[in-house]
Amino acid sequence: MTVPLPPAGAAFLLAQLGAHAAARYGERVAALDLTPAQTGLLRLVMTEPGLNQRDLATRLGVGASTAVALVDGLESRDLLERRRGPHDRRLHALHLTDAGTRAMAEVRTVAMDHDADMTAALDDDERRTLVALLRRVADQQGLPPGVHPGYRALRRQAR
Amino acid sequence: MTVPLPPAGAAFLLAQLGAHAAARYGERVAALDLTPAQTGLLRLVMTEPGLNQRDLATRLGVGASTAVALVDGLESRDLLERRRGPHDRRLHALHLTDAGTRAMAEVRTVAMDHDADMTAALDDDERRTLVALLRRVADQQGLPPGVHPGYRALRRQAR
DNA sequence: TATTGTTATACTCTATAACTATA
DNA sequence: TATAGTTATAGAGTATAACAATA
Fold it and tell me: Mind telling me how many Å the CA of B37 is from chain A's nearest CA?
């Protein structure tokens, strides 16, 4: 009456490790009082200063109203600013403030620590092999580099 | 004024691919009218028939009331049944019905297709290497085999 | 009339706490 | 009194739709 279970394959391990990596990253950036979604937004604006909110929402894979709420939170903390477009006054061009740039430097440190911790089981050679294989899988699956749609804002840490 | 971004490392790729794998799995089991959480529950009860709801909730990493709702949904579709414990009448021992067992056979097929699809970029050797590396990372990170806490029920497919 | 951004609203998922029945 | 299960309630996060300003 029992159907044999397949051993945990690559897809299952990816889902399991991905959830774990995302949760741990969330804990780490929570120490900076940021959510993963906020760091993704800041990161995107850092690489593309002047981005408007509509394009931001599209790139982040969230709805327009979600983008507004995210930007509101970051602007109220002076990490981000909206600048009215001079040509088209409907547009809000987004830019990091100096404080926002400093925050991203901290996020960068946290992300590198996180990466080292997640691959602590591997030596340098193995780590390179893993990254190379993951990149090929990500490419073949059509995933864009840099931003990942699919995760919505993870649960905020209770403190 | 710009801080250089690190290239996407292993942790980021794991999170990105994990979210993707989970989303695609969700689409596939939605075709069977199941959610990922439901398949996880059925799978657990299949491997440990007679499990009670409290232990189920603990193993699944969800609250007791969430377990009740999940079991309710599966019981109303005759995939699962509650049996009052003869020794302790507070306990509800969970068992798959025949229909539940058949459903899990379908889930197994879907999961194997999903696994093949997710690793379509790799040949057999590379797939084995990837799985071996992921297993070592998962072990070192303290992740239990079989069930992954961290994902809650993914969004139900609109139909 | 179309588009950017905003606000209002509803829905889903989850967690917490109160309740029952058994022990 | 303690525990398994249930129900009720509230919170967070997200999406949809209505709205305002600008084009």
Answer: 13
